[in-house]
Design a protein that fits this description.
Elements: H1 15-25, H2 28-46, H3 53-67, H4 83-93, H5 99-125, H6 128-140, H7 143-149, H8 154-170, H9 176-186, H10 191-204, H11 209-234, H12 239-250, H13 260-272, H14 274-290, H15 296-314, H16 325-340, H17 350-373, H18 376-398, H19 400-405, E1 411-413, H20 419-426, E2 433-435, E3 449-454, H21 457-463, E4 481-485, E5 489-494
Parallel strand pairs: 1-2, 1-3
Antiparallel strand pairs: 3-5, 4-5
């Protein structure tokens, strides 16, 4: 007799469930990374911008370094030097005229690395959805890609800090790899000195003495190399500090410790926007309650960033919002917890379902808030200006009459704003490009040279009437005659 086998009838899942499973199975992090990379490539070619003031000086100093010349740290209103940026500028300077655009490409790449790092940090600390939301918030805070488009070293600095946090999040007291990354960051911005010092205290306590000495060497590398560079160039190992604080006072940017509390709130709202800040506060409370151990590294970065900002105020340096970039990133991470943290709860629970519904409503409201308040035309206009003025400057400097007059004296610019760009384009030394408002050069302009003047309202407002600028600096010097003009600048010469 043939035996019969009973089997349970197979039931197919609903089509909607199958489609949902397929959507969830897609490699969303990889797709997101590809999207951000594509956007960065598009931005690089569509908006051909050039590095900002500080970064162009890194190229100029890098070229001086390769040539064996004295680095012009003491030039009129020169920015603070950053050792790693100078080395990078030296490497790029061998590329010639295209080095400045390659620097922009490098900062765009750094932004992509930063976005990937924020995703990795938030996903490892909490969940992949939290990471995805945090990366999305970063991309939607336009100040950050705007910094990348202008070649600010803040973007590679942030990328190093975030990836150091990622390595530590994945393996506590990771040690040497984290120290290496933080030491590189400490050669870009002194804010990393506090972070690496705190990390040394965290790692050195349970380590043996050989390991402690190695960690101490990494910790000291940033300030020691910084001071040694200052001493080698200026004879003053504290030159960067004294020069920066003096320049901040001269330009009216030194606010003191009393301005730190109000500036902290104001700058975080500017960088993150008020809804994200409020979500960040809620997310921090939620994360501390649900997963207190997971919140340690992001919250430590947040506190260290606030501490650094307070130290900047105490030291008399410029109190500007760029010094709160690290805390603002962590606010985004905690805001992502508020929106996507329901994935830390068990499926099907009432709290999870209510939280998810509220998060969806918050996202819809956030998109509406952004759409009604963000003026993309402003960003587009700024990016176009930053490309156009540099092209216009190169055009007027290349004019035959201007080239012929270069032998008659220095190039005179209204103030410090154009000095590094003119020096980079013409490959001129420190005394070859001077500012008309430099007290040390008073009377010298009568001897002759080339005077570059703004030719339209945009260059006048952005490059002359800033930092207590004088409208008379936009007028031709006495005895100078017209030589050439572009859409952005005019050139007058006297030989």
């Amino acid at each position: 007799m043939e035996s019969a086998t009973l089997t349970r009838p197979r039931t197919e899942p609903p089509a909607r469930s199958r489609h949902g499973a397929r959507l969830l199975a897609l490699p969303w992090p990889l797709l997101g990374l590809i999207g951000v990379t594509a956007a960065a490539i598009f931005g690089f070619f569509w908006y051909p911008t050039y590095p900002n003031y500080d970064s162009v000086y890194s190229l100029v100093w890098g070229r001086e370094l390769l040539a064996g010349d004295q680095l012009s740290f003491e030039a009129f209103r020169a920015p603070t030097q950053h050792p790693l940026a100078i080395v990078f500028g030296a490497v790029l300077s061998v590329l010639g005229d295209g080095a400045d655009r390659v620097m922009i490409a490098a900062t765009f790449l750094s932004f992509v690395v930063l976005v990937a790092g924020i995703y990795r940090l938030a996903s490892r600390a909490f969940t992949p959805l939290v990471g995805f939301i945090a990366a999305g918030l970063l991309c939607s805070r336009f100040d950050f890609p705007f910094l990348a488009a202008r070649g600010y070293i803040d973007i590679p600095f942030l990328a190093l800090i975030v990836w150091a946090a990622v390595m530590e999040q994945e393996s506590r007291r990771r040690g040497t790899p984290v120290f290496v990354v933080l030491a590189l960051a400490a050669l870009l911005r002194p804010e990393a000195w506090l972070l690496i010092g705190l990390y040394f205290l965290w790692c050195a306590w349970p380590a043996d003495w050989t390991t402690r000495i190695r960690y101490a060497a990494f910790t000291a590398a940033g300030p020691v190399i910084w001071a040694a560079t200052d001493f080698a160039v200026t004879g003053d190992p504290l030159y960067s500090h004294t020069h920066t604080s003096g320049l901040a006072e001269e330009l009216g940017r030194a606010k003191g410790l009393s301005a730190v509390p109000s500036s902290t709130v104001d700058f975080l709202i500017r960088l993150d926007k008020l809804p994200v800040v409020l979500l960040g506060i809620a997310g921090l409370v939620i994360a501390a309650y649900i997963a207190p151990r997971r919140v340690v590294i992001p919250f430590s970065l947040f506190l260290a960033g606030l501490g650094t900002f307070a130290a900047v105020g105490i030291a008399g340096l410029s109190v500007i919002q760029r010094y709160l970039l690290v805390p603002s990133l962590m606010v985004m991470v905690f805001a992502a917890v508020a929106l996507g943290g329901f994935t830390m709860l068990r499926r099907g629970t009432l709290v999870r379902n209510v939280w998810m519904g509220a998060a969806i409503l918050a996202v819809v409201g956030g998109v509406a808030f952004t759409a009604t308040r963000v003026n993309l035309h402003v960003f587009e206009t700024e990016l176009e200006f930053r490309g156009d003025w540099r092209v216009g400057l190169e055009e007027v400097l290349a004019a035959p009459a201007v080239q012929a007059a270069l032998k008659c004296g220095p190039v005179w610019v209204p103030n410090h704003k154009l000095i590094p760009d003119v020096r980079w384009v013409l490959d001129r030394p420190r005394d070859g490009v001077l500012a008309r408002n430099d007290p040390a050069q008073e009377g010298r302009i009568a001897r002759g040279g080339v005077a570059i003047l703004p030719a339209n309202r945009s260059t006048l407002v952005r490059q002359v009437l800033v930092d207590r600028g004088d409208i008379r600096l936009a007028l031709p010097p006495e005895g100078y005659t017209f030589a050439a003009a572009s859409s952005m600048y005019g050139a007058y010469v006297r030989c």
